[in-house]
Amino acid sequence: METARNEAFDAWMRERQFSANSLARELNSRLEALTGKLGTYDGRHIRDWRSGRVRWPHAAARAVLADLSGRSPVDLGFVPRRRTSPAAVQQEDPMHRRILVTGALTAAVAAAAAPAIASTRKIGMSDVERLHEKFAAVIASDHKRGGQLDIEQRATALAETALNLQNSGSATQRVRSHLYGTAASFRSSAMWAAIDGRRFKDAVAHMKEAQVLAEMSGDQAIKFRIWSHAGTLWRHMGRPADALSANDVARELHITRRDPMFASLGMAREMAIKGASHDLRSLPRAYDDARKAMSRADPQAPRPVWLLAFWDEAELHSLALSAYLSAGDWVTAEYHAHRCLASLRPHMQRSRAITTSRLAQAQLAQGDIDTATRTAMTVEKDAATQHPRVSRMLQEFGAGLRATAPGSNSTRIWNEHAAAWRAHP
């Protein structure tokens, strides 16, 4: 199908005497002023916009163009994409994964997301609270079935809902900040679902969007969550130096000095990263520091639902288990696994499956084949077949068991058990 040339954008460029290359340079310069990083646009991108091949530029570009021209993206002839699935949106916009925006943008980002709507409706905190209820439901789904694509898609759609509210009426700056924070929260949950499901490219895309929204909200807690998740993302991708740097950003936020509970989580995730780097000597002190910070925290202090839902002594042991398992100290890893399982709250079903799978790996590494097999067989079938991380760990366990004791009775039993899972997912 032939694309329609964007005559309005072309006329504005001619009016301002911009060539494709000179506009790209101006765009990149302004992006650097806003975000601290030079943009990566070139003349080809501008020509795609002018020709109509790309009808709705990325949010960062729309914000800069609105600021530069004094006009909305719609007035410049751009056409908002219709609501569709995340996969279709990515396919429609070839720049989706190429624009790196990690700093604060102006409020034009949200205003550019849809045409301006004249309305007398007053948006208030009751609207924000209704979104918070939906956020709590996303968190609950994550702890039950983590890593699933439908959780990621639902969180992404709810982030868009929060942003669309910005354009549906008038609101105080306080309400708008809360809406940006809520949108960032949903995006960070989409990011976490993608990490948990090992869809790392999607997680990176969600992270960039979440970082922009968090900066616009000014919410320290959600900034912490996003940067802390970024550390976990890079750790799972085998990039420990990047993981430490991202986690350091979270740990240096003011909220960690105000509330030791945040400081504790930052320390514990650093411990997991150092374990992945095989830095065994630093782990006991890191665990101790995280535990002491947690003990100093006021248990009654108000905290966001995402932190209250998971961060406790059980999760501290879970991160210690991950650290020691990665570093090759199987005995200490097994100790932390048992401590984690003994104190896990009932709703933490995903965490129970992950911890049990890691416990089986630690037992197998110590040569306790029969016990390890019995442990692995206690993982619930749904998690074993549907959760990407759990499935991967159990596949690795099976491969290790067959390599360690190829002719053993435990290996035969495990092979039959795993085959039954695959036959009846």
Structure characterization notes:
The chain starts with 6 loop residues before the first helix and ends with a helix. Helix 9 runs parallel beside helix 11 (220-236), helix 12 (240-251) packs antiparallel against helix 14 and helix 15 runs antiparallel to helix 17. The chain is elongated and about 80 Å long. Residues 83-119 have low confidence and may be disordered. The chain has helices at 7-15, 20-35, 43-51, 59-69, 86-92, 108-111, 125-145, 149-166, 173-196, 200-217, 220-236, 240-251, 255-258, 260-276, 283-296, 305-308, 313-327, 330-343, 349-365, 369-376, 381-386, 388-404, 409-423. It has 23 helices and no strands. It has 425 residues and is mainly α.
Explain the layout of strands and helices:
Elements: H1 7-15, H2 20-35, H3 43-51, H4 59-69, H5 86-92, H6 108-111, H7 125-145, H8 149-166, H9 173-196, H10 200-217, H11 220-236, H12 240-251, H13 255-258, H14 260-276, H15 283-296, H16 305-308, H17 313-327, H18 330-343, H19 349-365, H20 369-376, H21 381-386, H22 388-404, H23 409-423
Helix pairs in contact: 2-3, 7-8, 7-9, 8-9, 9-10, 9-11, 10-11, 11-12, 11-14, 12-14, 14-15, 14-17, 15-17, 17-18, 17-19, 18-19, 19-20, 19-22
